[in-house]
Amino acid sequence: MKWLRTLVLFDCGGLMSSPDWASIHASYVRAIQQIDFPVGAGTLTLRKKVKRPDGQSERNGVGYLRRRFLKFIVEVEGWESEADVDLARDRRQPDIRLYPSLETYQEPITSNFGDFDLVTTAAGGTRVAIEWETGNISSSHRSLNKLAIALASGKIQVGVLIVPSRQTYVHLTDRIGNIGELSAYLELWESLKVSVPRGLLAISVVEHDELTDSDTFPYLPSGKDGRAKQGRSKRKRAKRK
Prior knowledge:
Number of strands: 11
Radius of gyration: 20 Å
CATH class: Alpha Beta
Largest sheet: 5 strands, mixed
Distance between the termini: 38 Å
CATH architecture: 3-Layer(aba) Sandwich
Number of domains: 1
């Protein structure tokens, strides 16, 4: 698989010039480049999306890519995988105003953020969290928001979201998060730097190496939940019509 580019949305405290960031980035890029299909091929080949007579499309699943990335970054790059970052529900909420009473109010936190895909500590002590996108575009927004809050709280110093390029997205599970659909919102996340004393937020874009339209080449396997489950349901409904 190819690493295309890394967009640094903000860098508070000069982390981008630090040895830790250079090491972190080089390590996860190497893990990206080791993702192949078929296994052992050395490159990632995707079968092109095909539209069927029923109007539905056959596409590649996305869970395989995340699993291979995590496998390589832990087993080959030697990262320690720890998914939990304690973003406590009892942290102080900002003061807001109620209307029409104009009273000052703090809305209680009643939901959890969920774990990050990978959390580890670099050699120089920099705490980093990485999210590999396997959900729809709203999931990408949640991941970036969650990373920004973790950075603002000081729980991590580097947050990275890895998403497919627009060219790869076309051949993956329908509506998977991708850089094309995130591009219009980058200024929003860049503006969050004012709440971060020291931290770096980045998006890395990845892409397949090759495409094939061979009908004997398998699609990447699909998962059993999320967008993959919805896609199977749509295909079943189409078959019943």
